[in-house]
Design goal:
By secondary structure, this protein is mainly alpha-helical. It contains 8 helices and no strands. It starts with a helix and ends with a helix.
């Protein structure tokens, strides 16, 4: 069991390093390896969602963030990513749903405030935007 955990940790560290270097193809391949040996490791699904989001493949991003949220529905980082994906796909109402949920779980998470402020500004709700920008 320890050997499997070490293998997952090593794979994960490599996937993150490649992602940060914008080598999404190889990072994605490693995330697939992680999913094969540890299907309940939500971070690899989240990272895959981010890769698809960053490459404009929104439907795939939605699929992978959904897998992350099934495994960890109260993770504010996952909820924020779901909100970003929803806003990019044009579903602002769903984006606010995820952000409200993230804010409820982790009230002082600046990334939630920042994204909410941006979404309010895009809707020309500048008073609400200013309120959330002040919280960041």
């Amino acid at each position: 069991m320890q050997n499997k955990e070490n293998k997952i940790k090593e794979l994960w560290e490599n996937a993150v390093k490649l992602y940060k270097g914008k080598d999404f193809k190889n990072s994605y391949e490693i995330c697939k390896q992680i999913a094969a040996v540890a299907p309940n490791f939500p971070d690899s699904y989240h990272l895959t969602a981010l890769m698809f989001l960053n490459t404009g493949k929104i439907k795939q991003a939605e699929q992978f963030i959904s897998k992350s949220l099934l495994l960890k529905p109260t993770n504010p980082t996952f909820l924020n990513t779901a909100a970003k994906i929803s806003s990019v796909s044009g579903d602002v109402e769903k984006a606010f749903y995820y952000l409200d949920k993230a804010e409820e779980i982790f009230p002082k998470y600046f990334k939630t405030y920042n994204l909410k402020a941006k979404l309010f500004a895009l809707q020309e709700k500048y008073e609400e935007a200013a309120e959330y920008y002040q919280k960041t």
